[in-house]
Amino acid sequence: MQLKNDLLIRAAKGEAVERTPVWLMRQAGRILPEYRAVRNSLSGFKELVETPELAAEVTIQPVDILDVDAAIIFSDILVVPEAMGCTYEMIEKRGPLFPQTIRTEEDLKRLRVADPHEHLNYVLEAIKVTKRALNGRVPLIGFAGAPWTILAYMVEGSGSKTFSHARGMLYTNPRLAHQMLRMITDTTIAYLKAQVEAGANLIQIFDSWAGILSPAHYREFALPYITEICDAINEVPVTVFAKGAFFALEDFSKLNCETIGLDWNMEVSKARQQVGPNKTLQGNMDPCLLYSSFETIERETKNMLKEFGPGRHIANLGHGVYPDTDPEKVKCFVQTVKEYGSN
Questions:
Q1: Residue 12 and residue 233: Cα distance in Å, rounded?
Q2: Which of 256, 132, 138 is CA-nearest to residue 189?
Q3: Could you read off the pLDDT of 169-228 as tens digits, one per residue?
Q4: What digits encode the pLDDT tens for the residues 238-259?
Q5: What is the rounded CA–CA span in Å between residue 5 and residue 162?
Q6: Helix 174-198 crosses helix 223-232 at what angle (to 10 degrees)?
Q7: Which of 96, 129, 170, 177 fits a 20 to 30 Å CA distance from 71?
Q8: Predicted TM-score (pTM) of this structure
Q9: What residues are annotated to the active site?
């Protein structure tokens, strides 16, 4: 299907664009009353993720309401461990909880390399439904968590400030860690390829907990598996967003991907110098900017765009939009990007 708005794809590939494309991580979610209306009619978050028609509906809401240049399929990175046999619960106002963690060789026997068509078919169906409904208006982004981040949740059992159990495993049982990472990587490659087959126009890999590792551990337990995923996904552009991994930007320049996401702690000029001219950069406004006045949002957004320059940039926040953000402030950010590129 021919895309009516292919700015994101062209920007990712380094092609000429009329203006900088813009979308937001977590744009489909709690900031929108329309999302909350759907969510509140259900038993919980997982029912929404696992119901393709409803997942498609909330995926498209920010395209209609916020006027962003891309949709990102409404799902969660934790569908992968669930598909592998490590189920999670989503606790309201607390986040994910894994009743059974993976910390020993015996625990590992409970896991399988998942078949996306059997164990994650609801995501693939959601992509197909969304694609039909979008009818080529904007690209659809598919995604998965990076293997290290997925392992961190499976070992820790929940979100954590330190992920001490997961990081501890890298010292006490590195062999087990690599066995887990191997299974997660194999599952993720098959899953992402299935997303592309279902209609995803671009893939993003989220390494949410990259920044808690030492550089040495990141290069041993995270980077090789991300490299493998990037090498395997060659049908569509790939974005790698590794929050906090400022120390790995030079390594990322060698990845077989088109775009590197930056968080708000990363300096644009230094990042560009480390990544080089042949990658598109995505980001990296501080999500907290959207708590400020419309005037401040306009000014800081223009400053960000000026810093990135006109080429090889996708405008976004440096992390997901926070749930208590005013949608009107998000619209201000989006429209400022669009008007800046048109002047």
A1: 15
A2: 256
A3: 999 999 999 999 999 999 999 999 999 999 999 999 999 999 999 999 999 999 999 999
A4: 999 999 999 999 999 999 999 9
A5: 41
A6: 20
A7: 96
A8: 0.97
A9: 26, 30, 39, 76, 153
First-to-last C-alpha distance (Å) of the chain: 30
Phi-psi region of 42 (alpha: psi -120 to 50; beta: other; left: phi over 0): beta
- Count helices and strands (H / E) in the chain: 17, 9
Buried b (16+ CB within 10 A) or exposed e, 112-122: ebbebeebbbe
Residue appearing with tokens 């894994």: 98
Largest CA distance in the chain: 61
How far is it, in rounded angstroms, from Cα 231 to Cα 224?
11
pLDDT at 144: 98
pLDDT tens per residue across span 13-35: 999 999 999 999 999 999 999 99
Residue 10's closest CA among 305, 311, 235? 311
The answer on pLDDT for 341 being more than 90 is no
Q: In whole angstroms, what is the distance from residue 197 CA to residue 305 CA?
A: 34
- Give the pairing type, strands 140-145 and 71-72: parallel
Q: Which residue bears the tokens 């996708």?
A: 314
Report whether 221 contacts 148 (CB < 8 A). Answer: yes
